[in-house]
Design a protein that fits this description.
heterodimer; A: 223 residues; alpha/beta; Rossmann fold; 2 domains; three-stranded antiparallel sheet; 35% helix; B: 252 residues; mainly alpha; MetI-like fold; 11 helices; 86% helix; 0% strand; globular
Chain lengths: 223, 252
Amino acid sequence: MINLVNVSKQYDGLEILKDFNINFEKNKITCLFGPSGVGKTTIANIVAGIVPVDKGLIECTDNLLFSYVFQEPRLLKWYNVYDNIDFVLRDVYKNDKRAEIINSYLKMVELYEYKSYKIDALSGGMAQRVSLARAFAYPSHILIMDEPFKGFDFKLKNEMISLFKKMWDSSRRTVIFITHDVEEAIDLSHTIYTLKNRPISIIDKLIVNNNNKEEIKNLLLSL
Amino acid sequence: MMNFILRNKSKLLIILFWILIWEILSLIINQEIYLPSPHAAFSSLMNLLNKKDTYTTILYSTYRTLTGFFLSCALGIFLGIICGIYKPVYNLFYPLIGIIRTIPVMSIIIIAIMWFKDTNVPIFVAFLMCFPIIWTNSVSGIHSTDIKLLQMCEVYKVKKIRIIKSVYFNSSLPYIKAGMISALGIGWKVTSAAEVLSLPKYSIGRFLYDSKVYLEIPDLFAWTIIIVSLSFLFENLLKYIFKIGDKYDKFS
């Protein structure tokens, strides 16, 4: 689906990536697992086209569309819940179709009753649910999730994870999932790349299945 | 009325305190030509408020101030947003705005008198004095836009024109509003100054000038009180409009 080939990237003389290679499989959830500050977000931003590379190739099919669930919701606080999703869909769908899609995703994240609420009136968890609904409502081929559940308590995190699973089941797409939380990584991913710095290199590529979850968990905890 | 007085008791006391100081100073100086007493100034004010011409004059001066102000808002916000987003356009306009900001008001008024007919001079001067304030605030507002929101727009491939309208404009709105409030106050000051020199038929500036020529100093003070009150009134009206807008926005 998408490959980074011999990609190099420097920030102020600091080498983040050097001849780095990685592959993200179509319609699978691939996790980038590593400690904070290793440069996982840089990889995701290169894939999304937000950050240009110094050297190397990004191999993918043309006209790929991306959606992104950032660490923080990144919503327009002067718009309400509905209009925030509408904002990214306006150039993609006509009015009727847009309303249908937005309402269905708002129902899915259980925020339909809050659709006319301003962002400031929402809790952190609710705002991140809007961000999740926006990402799924957008007809992206690749969905990037950069530690979207960071800072949430255990209960809220579990709610968000099951919500994500439900949404992904109904609209399967390629997901790049960034985390340094072992439980999240095992619970959601099909493939886990464990990373170390610097420059970033892949320690291991782990394929998760129902039989090896405990083994992978121990491995990740030992890193 | 009673409720209003009770609610604003401290403010009224402060005003009364300064009027008392004014009274004491005028008693010490004891020459109306330098400093008339509050009583003389307020009597003149009452006298003026009983004349129909006063209201026509106020209306014309208000028209000039507001026209200059709204022209500067329209151009200042438009150019400010463009300059805030596109660095080369900013570099092009920055020296010009810097020059406008440093030219003495009197030079601009005299130049304007050569260029325009009397009634348009104050409009042009108000426009030129308010424009740099609005422009600077609009540019600062654009520069304060959260880069993270712009990245989000980039990922979702939102069209540039919608980014300008929905992200840049809304981010810079608090700055634009603050700029508009300060510009309106300055607009009243420079309009009156330009009227004093260009002397349009119905204008507060002309009456200020006449009071000076005929040494009617209480009238001079009365007209000054009118300008200050108008400036205060319009500034509060603008703040009120913004407040209503915010409230409406909160519930929409």
